[in-house]
Design brief:
Elements: H1 2-12, E1 18-23, H2 30-41, E2 46-51, H3 86-101, E3 105-107, H4 123-135, H5 138-141, E4 147-149, H6 157-166, E5 185-186, H7 191-203, E6 210-211
Parallel strand pairs: 1-2, 3-4, 5-6
Helix pairs in contact: 1-6, 6-7
């Protein structure tokens, strides 16, 4: 849902959107099918899915044989659903894609309720990556560089829901679950599902999602 709202934000801001999805060996592979459908609905002009096998590295409940936590109260430690350096890999590929397209704006759907647990969802990480992109690309060398947008960064899930509604996002076509049993069906118990549900409840918006529990 965060990626869908970010694409809708970019479209509303007047950008022509090329989108990149990462097939990193994640257990929630149904999200890739959802990404294709959402990209079509939102008028993305070029949607590419890039394969990078992070299962070869492992270390996460999303890329290794580690159970996805369900029904637990989040603690202060980095969650086991954190995929080591995933956003670094994603942003590096997005920067490469932008250079090929000749695009100067990068958009990522990081939001504030994630960066308390995931180190690669913090504002300091985004600032550091923006500098890396400036130093390590031909666009940066030419002085044009990139503008990195994170339109959801300081929004709660409720804020993301409200923004998505205002932008006409079809949330029923999106998938957030870390362990979905079927396409567009949420387990209802993992952290991602709990955040999603809470967001709709707090926003006072009817949740169109399907949950098992």
């Amino acid at each position: 849902m965060d990626s869908a709202v970010s694409v809708a934000w970019a479209r509303a801001a007047g950008f022509e959107v090329g989108a990149l999805s990462l097939d990193y060996g994640q257990r929630q592979r149904f999200e890739l099918d959802a990404a294709r459908a959402v990209a079509r609905r939102l008028g993305v002009v070029d949607h590419r899915i890039v394969a990078v096998d992070l299962r070869a590295v492992g270390g996460s409940a999303l890329t290794a044989d580690i159970n996805v936590p369900k029904g637990q109260v989040p603690g202060s430690a980095v969650p086991v659903t954190y995929v080591p350096a995933r956003n670094t890999v994603l942003l590096a590929l997005l920067t490469s894609y932008a250079e090929v397209l000749g695009a100067g704006d990068l958009v990522i759907g990081i939001n504030s309720q994630d960066y308390s647990g995931y180190p690669d969802c913090r504002p300091s990480f985004l600032r550091a990556f923006a500098e890396l992109a400036r130093q390590g690309t031909t666009a940066g060398l030419a002085g044009t560089g990139f503008t990195l947008h994170a339109p959801l960064l300081h929004l709660s899930k409720a804020g993301i829901v409200r923004l998505g509604v205002a932008l006409g996002v079809e949330f029923a076509a999106t998938l957030s679950c870390y362990d979905p049993p079927r396409p567009l069906v949420h387990c209802g118990l993992c952290d991602a599902c709990r955040l999603r549900r809470h967001g709709f409840d707090e926003a006072g918006v009817a949740d169109p999602s399907t949950y098992v529990a």
